[in-house]
Amino acid sequence: MAAGFTLVDTLMTVTIFGIVAAIAVPALRDVNDSIRLGQGAREVERELQTARLRAVSTNRPIRVRFNCPTAGEYRMVELIGTPSAPAAADAALDRCSQQKYPYPPADQNPITVPNQDGPARRLPVTVTFGAIKTLEFWPDGSVHADTGGGSPWPVLTSTGTAITVVKKTDTKSITVNGLGKIQIQ
Fold first, then answer.
1. What is the CA radius of gyration of the chain?
2. Of the candidates 49, 58, 122, 133, which lies 20 to 30 Å from 173 by C-alpha distance?
3. 108-127: pLDDT as tens digits
4. Is the peptide bond before 104 cis (omega within 30 degrees of 0)?
5. CA torsion sign, 123 to 127 to 128 to 130?
6. Residue 165: beta bridge partners?
7. What domains are there in the chain, each with its CATH number?
8. Which of 73-101 are b and which e, b meaning 16 or more Cβ less than 10 Å from the residue's Cβ?
9. What is the pTM of this model?
10. pLDDT single digits (tens) 70-79
11. Which residues does residue 121 pair with via DSSP β-bridges, in sequence order?
């Protein structure tokens, strides 16, 4: 008698393997979506931390603009002017342009600003911003948000604000309070 597998044994094994694979693929897609969402939240949180550190270390107000210049992109920019009187050149569309305000800057002369702009960054594919506000970090470590009510922007409350990133129906929030505490929820 010869030892081995029959054709029926092999077909049953392949069928069972196919069924298990068909069940596992959607679960793996969900894991991949969750990883991308977490990656996007961590990248935004890191950019916010960097902006706060740069504002304190350079003694210059730094803003983080979202959906800048297009959806899913964000950029850290040095405020041109003062918080009470921002320069007209500091408009959102102008500051998002890497052609007008390149990274790295053309010079590092502290008299000419901006010198602290960062590169335009992009969220992972299919991850977008939900609720957002442009945030401004001051040299004293406080955080201010654009409320559309003029300048200077008001300091965030102790409960702060949330920047959300979205992937399909899943969301992650990065909370930022007026004292500069930044954390992923």
1. 24
2. 58
3. 777 777 889 999 999 988 88
4. yes
5. negative
6. 129, 172
7. 8-184 (3.55.40.10)
8. bbbbbbbbeeeeebeeebebeebbeeeeb
9. 0.83
10. 889 999 999 9
11. 74
